[in-house]
From TrEMBL:
Organismal lineage: Bacteria, Pseudomonadati, Bacteroidota, Cytophagia, Cytophagales
GO molecular function: DNA binding
Protein name: AlpA family transcriptional regulator
Superkingdom of the source species: Bacteria
Residues in Helix-turn-helix domain copies: 40-87
Length: 112
């Protein structure tokens, strides 16, 4: 496409409009991503899950709950907690003990 000198102001105006639209869309996308990444503190996660601090500490030490640790403090991402809550079933954990159906008990006095 060939531009003439007299067409430049109009072409520049179009570019500026397109640039503004692109920047607006990027800002909207970033803002929506940040909304999903809400960071929760230990106190807030206790309130949301209605659990005691010691229970959360126990889950963290056993690796049962997704967490992040910075400068000695525990942090949780709301989206990770939602996924953890949806993914955990009573069949996968029985009082903190996981069951592996493929485990072999030969030679231990158990019948297969």
């Amino acid at each position: 496409m060939e531009l003439k000198f007299e067409d430049l102001p109009h072409a520049i105006a179009q570019l500026i409009d397109q640039n503004s639209l692109i920047l607006t869309r990027i800002q909207e996308a970033v803002a929506s991503d940040l909304g999903n990444e809400e960071i929760l503190t230990l106190g807030r996660i206790c309130e949301l899950l209605e659990l005691k601090r010691q229970t959360i500490y126990s889950y963290v030490s056993k690796g049962k709950i997704p967490f992040h640790k910075r400068a000695g403090k525990l942090y949780f991402f709301r989206q990770e907690i939602k996924e953890w809550l949806k993914g955990e079933t009573k069949d996968s954990l029985v009082e903190g003990i996981s069951f592996n159906p493929k485990r072999k008990f030969r030679g231990r006095g158990f019948k297969n």
